[in-house]
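Holo prediction. Input below; ligand is acetoacetyl-coenzyme A.
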Amino acid sequence: NTEADAILVERDGRVAILRLNRPKALNALNNSVMRAMAAAIAALDTDTGVGVIVITGSDKAFAAGADIKEMADRSAVEMAMSDWFSGWDAVARCRTPLIAAVSGFALGGGCELAMMCDIIIASETAKFGQPEIKLGVIPGMGGSQRLTRAIGKYKAMDLILTGRLIDAGEADRVGLVSRVVQQARFWDDVMTTARMIAGFGKPSVIAAKETANRALEVSLAEGLLFERRVFHALFATEDQKEGMNAFVAKRPAEFRHR
Ligand code: CAA
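Structure of the complex:
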């Protein structure tokens, strides 16, 4: 399919849903998908009407990896000159919370795309893996770094060096997913979670995401200082006054920035 329909963009109130749409190729991530995803995220991220972005695939596959057929015959120079995969940085740069809703295969670039998100909700049918070693390469969309940070060196090495797939239960035990949900309740759970986060004040939601992500970049002392400063700064927002006053008055908060 063409770039225009490589992903489907849906809206449900303040929740935007980006659905990978190459079912016959198990949503393999080619350049069209990458460009469409980067453009959609850039537009949605600056839309004040969007509180959460959900990235999902089909029942059978979230995404079975980068498109092997598109890459197979490339030279090292072509890969380097085009900075292959760099378009995906737009996903990692997104300030709006991203939920990966994973049903079926999330392999290679699919697992790496899920790990660019802030919350990973897995259906019990989900299967994760970094099978690039079987293709004579290594993860190239962040897997060697994000997987190691997410689950630790020894669990990550097990997956990266053997290329074996793990099911949703094992992914949950090692801390690769936020939660696992029965297939029948999966989409309800994803949307309930997305709507809940999208209902909070966006300044504090962005601050929460930014601050938690600092933990992966800086020392504890620097991270704690960053957190304290951001916490204090949020007292300049109307949403802080509303949130706290609503609690005291025993009424639901009506956040302005949502
Ligand atoms: N790239 C291109 N096409 C893919 C693909 C991929 N990553 N994964 C699946 N497809 C295609 C298959 O070629 C097949 O197409 P045809 O019908 O034209 O033959 C179609 O999707 C259906 O796939 P299968 O017939 O293989 O389905 P299956 O149910 O028998 O197996 C699977 C499913 C185990 C996921 C298997 O498709 C598979 O192993 N896929 C490749 C997984 C992989 O190696 N991913 C890593 C890619 S490299 C990468 O991601 C680099 C990086 O770090 C970013």
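DSSP finds twelve helices and ten strands in the chain. That is the main takeaway for now.
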